[in-house]
Design a protein that fits this description.
The structure holds two protein chains of two kinds. Helices cover 16% and strands 30% of the residues of chain A. Chain A has five helices and 15 strands. In chain A, strand 12, helix 5 and strand 13 form a beta-alpha-beta unit. The longest helix of chain A has 10 residues, at 5-14. Chain A is globular, with a radius of gyration of 17 Å. Chain B has two domains: 1-51, no CATH class; 58-267, Glutaconate Coenzyme A-transferase (3-Layer(aba) Sandwich), CATH 3.40.1080. In chain B, 23% of the residues lie in helices and 21% in strands. Chain B is built from nine helices and twelve strands. Chain B has helices spanning 11-14, 17-24, 36-42, 57-61, 82-91, 109-115, 132-139, 150-162, 225-228, and strands at residues 53-54, 69-72, 96-99, 119-124, 144-147, 167-169, 183-186, 189-194, 199-209, 215-216, 232-242, 262-265. In chain B, the strands form two sheets. In chain B, strands 1, 2, 3, 4, 5, 9, 10, 11 and 12 form a nine-stranded mixed beta sheet that branches. In chain B, strands 6-8-7 form a three-stranded antiparallel beta sheet. In chain B, 51% of the residues are buried. The chains are: A alpha/beta, B alpha/beta. Chains A and B meet through helix 3 and helix 4 of A and helix 7, helix 8 and helix 9 of B.
């Protein structure tokens, strides 16, 4: 068993506390929005100029002037605000957002990560990834433990072009939750049925195990969506 | 006639308002008969000293020259000045340096501009998968790319508009986008020096404007439009609606008219009115 993309997103959402200001990157991270506890006040930031991104509008309710960073139509939550790029990136780079959840190609044991350019990619694009990485205090990475070819994505040193150095705090994968601390990787949670050695086998860097490590608590389904596979 | 001289327009002279306005404006503008009524609505009958209204996008792009640096506002389709871009495509120029966040969202407006081959270089942050024309040109080596992290792009434009000589940012430190750039350790952390960025022209999209150049936006249209308004020698905004002076609440003017040279009222680019568009990705 592993967690689905939605399963990873569900687990990330549990770690976003009331009052957090969060930017969600493309891929698995945007799915986190679907699993936030509605009882918590959490503001989603979109770098094109929104704090308080709401759900996708229903058909016919789209506003041409209101899109989120993924270029899709969105709505605003109560208390949302709109602003320009200078203010938006002041929030990001200036350390005002509390969390960013990003995808990654590789994450290194020293907190470096790479997510903006796949090696060999013909046309690069960077967007706001580097600004989030240097500015947001809690950088969470949501990704699979290994590549499609089964190669570890958590490594000693990144080979892919870096997004930023030493900034990742926590990695959420389809089988584990791993913290990056001063002296390296620490396993916090793993899927039921797996052992710390199973996680080590798919991690290409030394991995300590927290004394109080536990099982990932993600239900098999949520509102009909598969969280396990 | 001196600047500031009150101009009282009688009913009779109102019929010749295009001649009067043409005489007092600093530059003679081609004003067509059909547009007189529209123009008359935008100016005061009492005192006419400033009128930044243009009647067409083609006038707005007339002065763009070969080799010019041109900024375009917009993030995705929101706040993209599609009609001004199309006017520039019709005008046709060579060796332009384009500054924009993305490289277009399809085969129209900004996306198509790259296909026309008018640009020598693009300074931008994120060419989306929908930016096909730019991609083709780039892969053939026909256009130069200066890739800039989005926040650095914003701040370089801000520095250009705010009269600053550059700034140190932590963004990009230790990455290939900082290669060859000056760095400095400040407070124990590495910062990268970035230069200001300004342009000869900035073409913007706003929601409403007045003859003084004041602009207001809605939704996520503000994006790069507000900062680009400050950083070019010649700034034109296309707007959905021109309102009389005083028609914009001073509390809601996002771009002060001091930054804006001209305002054009024009219907939105038809492709930017399509709700369903192939470039639309998943929300949020």
């Amino acid at each position: 068993m592993t967690l689905t993309r939605d399963g990873i997103a569900y687990r990330v959402a549990l770690d976003l506390p009331e009052g957090s200001y969060v930017n969600l990157g493309v891929g698995i991270p945007v799915l986190v929005a679907n699993y936030l506890d509605p009882r918590k006040e959490i503001f989603l930031h979109s770098e094109n100029g929104i704090l308080g991104v709401g759900p996708k509008p229903s058909r016919g309710q789209e506003d041409l002037d209101l899109i989120s960073a993924g270029k899709g139509y969105c709505t605003l939550t109560a208390g949302a605000c709109l602003f320009d790029q200078t203010i938006s990136f002041t929030m990001m780079r200036g350390g005002h957002l509390t969390h960013a959840v990003l995808g990654a190609i590789e994450v290194a044991a020293n907190g470096d990560f790479a997510n903006w350019r796949i090696p060999g990619q013909s046309l690069p694009g960077v967007g706001g990834a580097m600004d989030l990485a240097v500015g947001v205090p809690n950088i969470f990475i949501a990704m699979n433990q290994v590549t499609n070819k089964g190669e570890p994505k958590i490594v000693n040193r990144c080979v892919a072009p870096l997004t930023a150095r030493g900034c990742v705090k926590r990695i959420f994968t389809d089988i584990a939750v791993i913290d990056i601390e001063r002296d390296g990787l620490v396993l916090r949670e793993l899927l039921p049925g797996l052992t710390p050695d199973d996680i080590r086998k798919t991690t290409d860097a030394p991995l300590k195990v927290a004394a109080d490590y536990r099982e990932i608590n993600v239900p098999p389904t949520f509102k009909g969506i598969q969280l396990h596979s | 006639m001196r600047r500031g001289t009150p101009l009282i327009i009688s009913k009779r002279s109102a019929r010749n308002i295009h001649r009067i306005v043409a005489a007092i404006l600093p530059q003679r503008l081609p004003i067509e008969r059909g547009s007189i009524k529209q123009l008359a609505q935008t100016i005061s009958y009492e005192t006419v000293v400033i009128n930044k209204i243009l009647m067409s996008c083609s006038e707005a792009v007339e002065s763009v020259f070969d080799g010019a640096t041109v900024m375009f506002g917009g993030f995705g389709n929101a706040g993209m000045p599609g009609q001004l871009i199309d006017a520039l495509r019709t005008r046709g120029r060579r060796d332009l340096v384009i500054v924009s966040n993305g490289a277009g969202t399809g085969d129209f407006a900004l996306g198509a501009l790259f296909g026309d081959g008018f640009a020598r270089k693009w300074v931008g942050s994120f060419p989306s998968p929908a930016a096909k024309a730019f991609r083709e040109r780039y892969l053939k080596g026909e256009i130069e790319l200066e890739l800039v992290p989005q926040g650095t792009l914003v701040e370089r434009i801000r520095a250009g508009g705010a009269g600053l000589g550059g700034f140190f940012t932590p963004t990009g430190a230790g990455t290939e986008l900082a290669a060859g750039k000056e760095t400095r350790i400040i407070g124990g952390r590495e910062f990268v020096f970035e230069l200001p960025l300004s342009a000869d022209f900035a073409f913007l999209k706003a929601y409403r404007g007045d003859r003084l150049g004041n602009l207001s936006y809605r939704g996520t249209m503000r994006n790069f439009n507000m900062v680009m308004a400050t950083a070019a020698k010649f700034v034109v905004a296309e707007v959905d609606e021109v309102v009389p002076v005083g028609g914009l609440d001073p509390e809601e003017i996002h771009t002060p008219g001091i930054f804006v040279d001209h305002v054009v009222q024009v219907a939105r680019h038809p492709r930017l009115l399509e709700v369903e568009s192939p470039s639309r990705e998943k929300a949020p």
